[in-house]
Design brief:
Length: 83
Amino acid sequence: MKIKIYRTIILSVVYGCETWSLTLRDEDRLRVFEKRVLRRIFGPKMYEVTGKWRRLHNEIVIRTAHKLLFEISNREECDGQGM
């Protein structure tokens, strides 16, 4: 459910803003906001070596989100074709 909200609200704002006149600061703030939302969705992960919880790194957050969104879009395409 959280990913559906992310796709409909956050992505439409972040990628819809390409038509806006933005400063570099505004663009950075939108990227930070997007990563913050994704971190809240995916939550912290336990570090296997120490057993402590840690925050996800930026590249892991983005990679995980892209992979999940790709899987969802493929699933929706298959459902739309009657498979």
